[in-house]
C-alpha cells in the first residue's frame, strides 16, 4: 500500500513543474469562486434586481461559446504556456480594475458586466489549457493522479470559496474581495512561465507541422466511440445538474423546511464528498476506467434518487454519496481522452469537449425554470436522478467504453492534417 501511495501523490508532487502548475491553478480557481460570489453580491446590493442578476449570469456564460471556439485554435497554434499566461494577465488586469474604479468612485454597473464578459470570453483557455498541458508534465501512469488533482482544485474552490467570500465581503467589501482574485491570476501567470514540458509541444516551432482545424476535432469526437459516448453521457448528466440548480434551493426550503441554512449545508456536504473521492480516485491504480465511469454514473443517479425520501437525513446521505460518485467521472474520462487525442489537436478538442459539456448545464437550468412550477420539486428530483443514472446505464452498452482503460493501451484515432 505504501508503494501505491508513493507512485501517485508522492511522486507527482516531487515533479516541480506539475507542483507549481497545480498550486497556481488551485489558487486561481479559488479566486474565481471568490469573485463570482462577490460580483453577484455587489450587483444585488446595487440593484436589488433579479433581472440585473440574470444579466450578470448571461455576461458570465454567454461568451463561453465563442471564446471556446477561439481558445482551442490558440492553444494548438502557439506555445500553450504563453497563451495561458496571456489569458491570466488579461483577466487579472480586468478584475483588478473593479476595486480600483470603486476606490476612485468611478465604478458603474456596465463595467461589472463588461468584466464578467471578459472572464466568460477567456475562461475556456484555462479550462482547455489544463488538460492540454498535463500530459506534457507527467508520465502516462500518472495521468489519473494528475486529473484527480485538477478535479480536486475545482471541488476545493467550490467548497472553500463561497463561504470564504461571504466572510470577506462582510469584512472588506465585495470590490476588495475581487482584488484578491486579481492577485491569484498573476500568481498563476508567473507559475506558468516556470513550467518545463517533456513532450515535443514545449514550443510551437518544435511541433510537427499540421493543418488541423476545428473540423478535425469534431471528426475525432464523432469518429471515436469512447470520446462520443462519454461526451453525450456527460452532456446528459449536466442537464440533470442544471435542473438540480433550480429545484434544489426550493427543495431545501419547501420540502425540508430548512431555508438557506439547510441549502448551504447540503451543498457543502456534496462538495465534501467530491473532495474525498477526488483524493481517493487519484490514489487508485489498475482500474478499468471505462467500467468505472459507467458504474459511478449509475451510482451517482441512484444517490440523487435518495432525495425522494423527503427528509433531511435522506438528503444528506444522498448528496454526500452523489458528490463521492460524481467527482471521479471527470478524472477517469479525462485520462482516457488524453490517451486518445493526438498532442497537436488537444487544444481544439478539449475546448470543443468542455464547451459542449458545460453548455448543457445552463440549458438544464433554463428548462428547469420552465417545468418546476408544472411538475413539482419532488418530480424534478426524480428527473435529475434519472438523467444522471440513465447516462451511466447508456454508457454500459458501449463496448469500446466498457473495455477502455484496460491494461492494453488505448490507441489514438488517426486524423488527417
Structure description:
This protein has helices at residues 2-13, 16-47, 50-61, 64-77, 80-103, 109-133, 143-172, 174-193, 214-223, 225-255, 259-282, 289-305, 312-340, 346-375, 377-395, 399-403. With 417 residues, the protein is an all-alpha fold. Helix 10 (225-255) packs antiparallel against helix 11 (259-282), helix 12 runs antiparallel to helix 15 (377-395) and helix 14 (346-375) runs antiparallel to helix 15. The longest helix has 32 residues, at 16-47. The radius of gyration is 21 Å and the shape is globular. The model is unreliable at 1-7, 205-209 and 408-417 (pLDDT under 50).
Task: Based on the model shown, name its key terms.
Growth Hormone, Chain: A, disordered N terminus, disordered C terminus, mainly alpha, 16 helices, 417 residues
Secondary-structure blueprint:
Layout: H1 2-13, H2 16-47, H3 50-61, H4 64-77, H5 80-103, H6 109-133, H7 143-172, H8 174-193, H9 214-223, H10 225-255, H11 259-282, H12 289-305, H13 312-340, H14 346-375, H15 377-395, H16 399-403
Helix pairs in contact: 2-3, 2-7, 2-8, 3-6, 4-6, 4-14, 5-6, 5-8, 6-14, 7-8, 7-11, 7-13, 9-10, 9-14, 10-11, 10-14, 10-15, 11-13, 12-13, 12-15, 14-15
